[in-house]
Amino acid sequence: MKRIALIVFCLWTLAGQASDFETIGLDQLRLMVPTLTGTGIHVAQPEAGAPTWQVNPAAVSQPTSLFTWISDSGSATNYPNSLGSESWHANEVGKRFYSVGTGVVPGVAHVDSYDANHFYNTLIASEVAIPARVVNQSFIFAAELPVLDRDYDGYVSRYGTVFASGAGNGGAVSSPATAYNVIAVGAHGGLSSAGPTLDGRCKPDITAPGSMTSFSTPLVAGAAAVLAQAAEREDGGPGTASDARDPKTIKALLLNSATKPADWTNSPVQPLDYRYGAGVLHISSAYRQLRGGRHAPNATESLSVGAPHPPANTSANLPTRRGWARQSISSTLTRAGLHHYFIDLTGVAGRNVTATLVWNRQEGQAGINNLDLFFYDVGSGALIASSESVVDNVEHMHVEGLPGSRYNLQVLKHGGASGRVTASEMYALAFEFGAADPPRLEQQQISAGQFQVRIMGEPNQLYALEASSTLLGWTALVTNKTSAAGWFQFSDLAGGPQRFYRAAERW
Which domains does the chain have, with CATH numbers? Predict the structure, then answer.
């Protein structure tokens, strides 16, 4: 059995939690959807530094019954116990992850507190299943270790566990954050490692506020648990739970919704910024994209390897400006696979587009399939942007100020002998075409003793019609999803207590 020594991050200072929650959009999410607190989600927190690796329940304002402590010596459900001792580092990580009052997901179903050496050597390296859906890893190994990364990649591919792993507090990014299939987290505004990896991949994947990556990582792990809970509730649409809770989908949504620092940059062959990844975590935006729903390609093609791939000849469009996909795509030694997603922004100028494609290094594979993203203006046929890394398993595009037109987002799986590891690949795609249009009230009239109004907004989006008699307090009368044409109708008794109406976006 392999035994690996671990290096734990050090705590110097902690950023203010309240301002962090505003920065990452958690305050906004809790205002709109207060029930998203990680309910029903089992999480894990391995910690280095044995024998001091344990979370103290009192330090995170949680009952002892929420925890199990696990090491090479066994497991315990009482605290304190003989397996180890309290870790200040574990407590501070827990405060930002699941603590009541200061954590992202205080409502989690259970927390497994692991000794990190036991966690990797006995469980991950041996592919032993754990009950946790989301794992926070605020520790690093001594360096980037390809064999260790392959263990983590195989584990994610087999079990579908989401790992948020700190990138490190300076210098190069270290394992396990360098694994393909984990979410590598940097510290925005603090000490943080930067990419690329030894083989040229972009890491970290995303950043969050924190003095060091020990304390930015649990914010991302918490966000993953929020999305996992929302997935289980089918907030992404009926029948979507399995696809939405896939770690590829969660990773794509988190990266695609990240906000861009002023000096963020990427290129067609470097999908993410080496310092910030996709940007700074924004949980409410990730949830809104999940709520945008799962969408299939509008068209699929098989074309000769190396052939041009202009927009397909179809009038079909995506029904919403934000959402996601989890889709299988195939190629052969002579044919490439191509999926088309169309969005009609005709007459809507100034939109931004962000799209993120994620797939895994498959279990038992040394390399990855080569997938790319392309973005075309349908009217002119011009290529607007692309993400074409030959080493990353993430492709990411961000384009600002689009003119009004119809656009084609493409996912390409390369064929041929190079860049094709397996015949098929399952990918997750998240997309966002600008901020939501504010709702408006149109065609107001009184007919047959009723006040009638049409609520106009974006297609397939939730809006509430609210009423007031004094403008001092508002009552929601109805909450509906708009049609594919972007509206729904409402009628109210004329002459009733309501005198004023307004529409508001709902998630």
Answer: 16-44+117-291 (3.40.50.200), 299-432 (2.60.120.380), 440-506 (2.60.40)
